[in-house]
Amino acid sequence: MKKEINVFDYAGEILKALPQGILLVSEAEDNVNAMTIGWGHLGIEFGVPIFAICVRESRFTYELLERTGEFTICVPRGEKFSDQVRKALGICGSKSGRDTDKIAQAKMTLVDSDEVRSPAIKEFPLTLECRVVYSEVQDVKKIASQFAKKFYQTGDAHKIYFGEILKSYIIED
User: What span, in angstroms and rounded, lies between the C-alpha atoms of 8 and 77?
Assistant: First the structure.
């Protein structure tokens, strides 16, 4: 069962969880991939609620996003993450979906989405279903030097995706 929510009523919870890790889920041709992210933006753009993500062009998630233009953001709940959530974040943040079924390895349960093809994840119940409305590759030369030195030593840029939040809810048992 899904309880629809106003995403901005949960903004604090989402942004507090983000630096600890939340999941970006993408799907194409029945290939579901989850990637741990620690960067993201929640706000209003083009007059609609938006969640913006940054994905490096070398990532498998990038390939899936380019094919479908859809994703879900799945956020764990609670002050302290469960052992299963921490394990899933570790697997999804350290393995490639090109050669690993991270969903199976982390023993996560997929839940069909209502508006996009990317599924939600029961163990990460606060869910945002998003469709890309704008994207652009970062110009690494324009990034402040202290960040460029820290995050872009290899030159592997991120592509920023602005996803309109089409639906937001909490998966309940």
Answer: 15
